[in-house]
Design brief:
With 94 residues, the chain is of the alpha+beta class. It is built from four helices and three strands. It is globular.
């Protein structure tokens, strides 16, 4: 299955945004606005799908009920370029 153009970069942008957020967490609506400001516009559905994928890979914890996304230690490593995961761009290479 071919990945959507910019998908890897948008997922990295989500992780970077969360790594800079207070307590490493953010409401999904706020996250969407931040991504839009950073040049990664996407629908809430697309952001929710990315967050669900990142949750499945252990890079974030996504509370589907409250809409709050929190990065994990592994997600921080990806955002800072210490590790890599297929499906997420590397910082500096996006």
């Amino acid at each position: 299955m071919k990945q959507e153009s910019g998908e890897k970069e948008r997922r990295l942008a989500i992780l970077i945004n969360l790594s800079l957020a207070m307590r490493y967490k953010c409401a999904i609506v706020e996250l969407r606005n931040d991504l839009d400001d950073a040049g990664y516009p996407a629908s809430l559905d697309r952001i929710r799908a990315d967050c669900a994928w990142l949750d499945e890979t252990g890079l974030v914890k996504y509370d589907f009920i409250t809409g709050v996304v929190t990065t994990t230690a592994r997600g921080l490593d990806i955002a800072q370029g210490y590790s890599e995961v297929p499906g997420v761009a590397r910082p500096g290479l996006a």
